[in-house]
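Schema walkthrough. Field components (list of strings):
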Amino acid sequence: MNRTWKWAAGAACATLVLTTGSALAQQRTTVEEIERYRQALGDGNPAELWEARGEAIWKEKRGPKGASLEKCDLGLGPGVVRGAYAQLPRYFADSGKVEDLESRLVTCMVTLQGLTPQEAKKDPFGGPGKKVPMDALVAYVTAESRGVKMNVQTTHPKEAEAYEIGKKIFFHRGGPYDFACATCHGVDNIRIRLQDLPNLTKQADAQRAYTSWPAYRVSQGEVRSFQWRLEDCFRQQRFPELEFTSEASVALTMFLAKNANGAPFAAPSIKR
Amino acid sequence: MKSRIIALSAVAALVAGCVTTPSDQEISAKALAVMKAGFKERGQAKLDRLDQDDLQRLCSIYSGDKTLPSDVAARIEKEQLATIKFPADGKLLGDWKSGERIAQSGRGGQYNDDPKDPSGANCYACHQLTKQEVSFGTIGPSLYNFAKARGYGPDIQKYAWTKVYNSHAFAACSSMPRFGYRGILTEGQIKDVVALLMDPESPVNK
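Field assembly_structure (string):
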């Protein structure tokens, strides 16, 4: 009750901040505005609701095999969730593929719970009035790496290859506007409108940005996963639709995650 | 003994073959195949958007820690300059007020945009243009006082037109979309945007 009220008050406060005119906006960057919003919320983040729901779904018997995900191996052994996200993506011998969290969850839903890949990937992202298990599971698993240092390896040849492919995708200019990821995220200290843009080729910026996803987006009322972040970037890049858990998405995640190595993971966070 | 050495070197060659890292070209080819398999067409955004023309290919190769060689830059600028088309009526300036609306709009080209709607130029995403609009990006340089600082004459008008039409004509591997060459804006829209930059009455020059 208390917490719900605090969030409501925080949201009202943010609305007030956002509508107090452009004179203020001139002096403050978006980052500072979000920091103020964060303070208004105190320590609370609505993402906690997703995390709690995700933990319940993780333990729930689902699918034709009536099994939970508790034996899912996220890379540190079956059922080990703590710290697993900080080492993803990685190569998995059982699937023979490099997998990020979302694609690994799909693999576990297929192998442990008996879902078809199509069923497991059916609702990748939530929307208005639609809460999906994937967002909740992602929130739960990532929260279990909070404070854990990012430690993504490219020792397996397929991991090294994924990193190099991800790097190529990052710099690939295409589409009617000639945009690449690097157009906005390969330069220091730039912003689009008032939004600061991290240079994801530099360690400090990559660390700050990567460890802040997934995030509860205040403007959308949803927890957004890293797969969502990539897909929506490509939409604005004027590219076709990035397929959920595709090899391309995992490779790009590998490039960005490895660039963030060494920083303590700090998500799910809260963003505008 | 001899056969043992041959066997050993065969093994060594095999191991070396296994651990040899793929060439840059091989990675590029693989990346394109992975992209083709990892995206699906939606709305106006078809898969051919992943294919690169010569400019996109060169500007992708020479990015990140690879600097663009000056001879490649000169070749790109020459080729892109050749794409510039000036309006048949010779008038480069339209209505700056319409130009301001086009500069504000970020619509167009995304799979969720209706291709029947006119595209914006989204100038403010990257450039400062006027004193009034404080929500501007810094990906490109400030264009405030564009003509006031450079002059209002026909040469500067042509320069402004060329920049909007195809910015690579003067700056190879610029981040800016080729608004004219790629048909993002119509000729009339480019006139309006050029007027926003060049009209003495435009807030850009106030």
